[in-house]
Amino acid sequence: MSSRDLILSRVRTAVAGAPDAPRTRPRAVPAATGGQTAERTVELFAERVADYRAVVHVAAPGEAAGVITAALARRAAERVVVPEGLPKEWAHAVRAHLGGGAVGDDPPLSAADLDAVCGVVTGCAVGIAETGTIVLDTGPGQGRRALTLVPDYHLCLVRAGQIVPGVPEAVAALDPVRPLTWISGPSATSDIELNRVEGVHGPRTLEVVVVR
Length: 212
What we know:
Blueprint: H1 3-15, H2 35-51, E1 55-59, H3 64-75, E2 80-81, H4 88-98, E3 102-103, H5 111-116, E4 119-122, E5 126-128, E6 133-136, H6 146-149, E7 153-159, E8 163-164, H7 167-173, E9 181-183, E10 188-190, E11 196-198, E12 205-211
Parallel strand pairs: 1-12, 2-3, 2-4, 4-7, 5-8, 7-12
Antiparallel strand pairs: 5-6, 6-9, 10-11
Helix pairs in contact: 3-4
């Protein structure tokens, strides 16, 4: 008898006669289909993102440019990466505020260049209300993964229509062959003494603008 067979035999012996596990139905998550349900989905997303110590703003479409400008001003940002494909009104707000300090990624910036900038402004692919997670897939307005992992500050803009209730809806909406980055708050970890350290594996500060 192999080690595998021996282990499986012991498992079968241990569970022999045990009652069957109760069958549970997965908890239904209401779809975001207009009215109060859609409004609550946006509110829940903002609440959950804030729970992760991110800075969150909820703005009307016409207010987004002002919120972007104010966020960069508070940050005292001087050089910020603007990936190709960022919606024109958002990109214009960054460039109008920073002028030459709004830099592109063509040709690709080196790791040292990215480490030297103040931050990056991107869109996203999907937002998940239940978990407060933002998913990037390197699509238009997001850029390659390094743009959102190396700079210390990430200002991410999420349209209300991109927010889904839960993870199953997000998985269904995403292309599994694309490089996906799932973000739940600023980068953080804890050492063996449970001291929280931020900015180790990504941005130390995440600021999110939800555009209704």
